[in-house]
Amino acid sequence: MSGRTSKQAEAADALVCLRDGAMVAIGGSLFHNKPMSLVREIARSRVRGLTVVAVTQASIDVDLLVAAGCVAEVRVPYLGLEHHGLAINVRRHAADGRVKMWDCDETQVIAGMEAAAKDLPSGLTKTGVGTDLPQSNPDLKLIADAITGEPMIAVPAIRPDVALLHAAQGDTWGNLAYAGYPFSDVLIAEATHRCGGKVIASVDELVPASRFANDPFHADIAHILVDAVVEAPWGAHPCSSHGNYQYDDGFLARYQQHARAGEQAMAAWLSEHVARPPMHNAYLDRFLTPTLIASLRREIYARQ
Amino acid sequence: MPGNDAPWSWPELAAVVLSRELADGEVGSPGGSRSEIPLAAARLAQLTHAPNLAIITSAAGFVANMVDKPWSPLFSSTMDWRNVYAGTEAVLPSSGVFHTRRDWFFAGALQVDAFGNINLTRVRLKDGAEMQGPGAAGLAYSSTMARRYFIYMHEHSRRSFVQKLDYRTAIGFGDGPGNREKLGLRGGGPALVISPRGVMDFDEATRRLRLRSVHPGQSVQDLVDNTGCDLIVPPSVPSTAEPSVRELDVLRRQVDRGGVLRR
C-alpha cells in the first residue's frame, strides 16, 4: 500500500499551474486574510493578462498585481484601501484602458461563484435591476424570471482556474483552519474545485495532521477542496490574518504614498518590496521586525 | 466643509441625527466610507432609546449589542478583528451576512441625484477622463432589499448632488414614483440624506429630494446654491435639532471615548 500524498509545496512550485490569461480568485476581504506572499510571488513571476476576482472585497492585493502589470481584467465589487483611500494603481490603469473593469456587486460575484460550485451555467439575483450595471457589464443579463416574469439579473458562472487563500493553520493533507472570519473562502474553494481549478492556500502555521484528526470541527475547509498548502508565516502581511495578527496600518499608508506619487515611485516600491526579496523568508527578514510583530499580535488579544 | 463654531463636531452631529432614526428592535448594518459615524450612531441608539437594536458589521458577520458591555473604540474598518470585543455575541456565516434581514443600512456615494439614486462606480471629470470609484460593494444588493437606508455625503456641492448621475450603481426611487414597485424591488428605498450642510428626506408623493433641516450655522441659501439637483425647499426650514446634553454625554463617555469623531 502506498502512502498519502502530501500537498505541502513551495510557493513557486504551487504557482507553476498559473498561466497567462488565467482567472484567479483571491480570498479574504479588503485587507484581511489576503494571501500576500503568493500575490508577491505572482508579481515576481511576470505572469500576464490575469482576470482577478475577489469575493468580496480587495485592496493592496489586487492593486499591487495591477501595478506589477499582471492583470487584464478586474472583477471586484469593492476595491480600495478604506480609510487610506481608493486603489490608486487600479484607478490609473483603468483610466487609460490597461485594465478592464467588470462592474459588479458582491451578491453578483457570489451568484456567479455559487453557480460554478453547483456546476450550473448561471446564477440569479435581483441585484442590479434598475441600475447601470447590466449596461456597463454585458455579462450581466437583464432577464424575466421564468416563474413570475419579474425583472432579474442573470450572472454567468464564475469558474476560476486558480484560487489563492490564506488561513491561519493548515496540515500536509490540505485541511485549513481560520483563527477569525473565513469570509467567502469556503465558496471560493468549492467553486474552483468543482470546475477543475487549483486551490492554493498559504498558512501562517503548518500544524501536525493530528491537530485536525483529533478535532474534525477544527477544519473550516476540508482537504478534498485544496490542492496545495504553502507554509508562509506572517504570509498575509501587510494584511491581517484575521484573529491571528492585525493589518500593518503604517505599511499600508506608505504603500498609498508611493502609489499617489506616481508610476515611478510605485515601480521603486515594487522593486524594493516584491522583486528584491527573492522569497517570503527574505521579505520577513527585511520588513517584519520583532517590535512590529509584537504590536500586530498585541492588537489581537488586547481588549481595550 | 463649512466651518463650525458649535460645541460638537460635524461627525458628532451626524452620529446623533442618524441615531434618532434607528428604532428599538431593528437589525441593521453600519458601513460606507467613514463607517465610524454610522457605527457610533447605532451604538448611541442602543445606549439611549433602542436597547434591542442589533448591529451586523456586514462583511465580518459580527452581531453586536453594546448594552451593559465594556466600551470599545470606533475602528475605521467594520471588518477589523478588534470589533469582536465590541459587544459581539454571535458571528453569521458569510451566506447569513446576505440572507439576514436589514431594517436599515448606510451608504456613502460619489454622487446622489434627486431620486436618491447613487453612484460609487465612476465619475466623469471636466477634461472628459473617467475616475474610478470604489465600486458597488454590496450596495446594489442592499438598496434593493433593505427596508430603508440612509445616505451620508461627505461633500455637499454641485459635483456631488447632481441632476444626472455619471453612473447609477444603486437604485433609490429610480425614475420616480412607482418605479421601485414596477421593478419588483423588495425594500422601501432611501429614507434620508445627510451632508455637512443639512438633512434631506424624500417627498412621499413625488419621491423627490426635500430639505428637512439645515445644520446650525448653515444657511438655506448656501445649501441650495451648492446643490446641483432639484431640491424641494419648504417655505419654512427648521434648524437641525442639536445634540441634547444626554446624547452628547453618552456619545462621548460610552461610544466615542477616544474622540475619533472630534478629529
What would you say this structure looks like, in words?
The complex is a heterodimer of chains A (304) and B (263). Chain A has twelve helices and 13 strands. Chain A has 304 residues and is of the alpha/beta class. In chain A, helix 2 (36-45) runs parallel beside helix 3 and helix 9 crosses helix 10 (263-275). The longest helix of chain A is centred in the C-terminal third of the chain and has 13 residues, at 249-261. In chain A, 57% of the residues are buried. In chain B, the strands form three sheets. Chain B has a nine-stranded mixed sheet with strand order 4-3-2-1-5-10-11-12-13, with helices on both faces. In chain B, strand 1, helix 2 and strand 2 (54-57) form a beta-alpha-beta unit. In chain B, helix 1 (10-20) packs across helix 2 and helix 2 (36-47) crosses helix 7. At the A-B interface, strand 5, helix 4 and helix 5 of A face strand 9, helix 4 and helix 5 of B.
Topology:
The complex is a heterodimer of chains A (304) and B (263).
Chain A: H1 11-14, E1 23-26, H2 36-45, E2 50-54, E3 57-58, H3 60-67, E4 71-75, E5 78-79, H4 88-95, E6 100-101, H5 106-117, E7 122-125, H6 133-136, E8 141-144, E9 151-156, E10 162-170, E11 176-177, H7 185-194, E12 198-206, H8 210-213, E13 228-231, H9 249-261, H10 263-275, H11 280-287, H12 290-301
Parallel strand pairs in A: 1-2, 1-10, 2-4, 3-5, 4-6, 10-12, 12-13
Antiparallel strand pairs in A: 7-9, 8-9, 10-11
Chain B: H1 10-20, E1 27-29, H2 36-47, E2 54-57, E3 62-64, E4 88-91, H3 94-99, E5 104-107, E6 111-112, E7 118-119, E8 122-124, E9 130-132, H4 139-145, E10 148-152, H5 179-183, E11 190-194, E12 198-202, E13 209-214, H6 220-225, H7 245-255
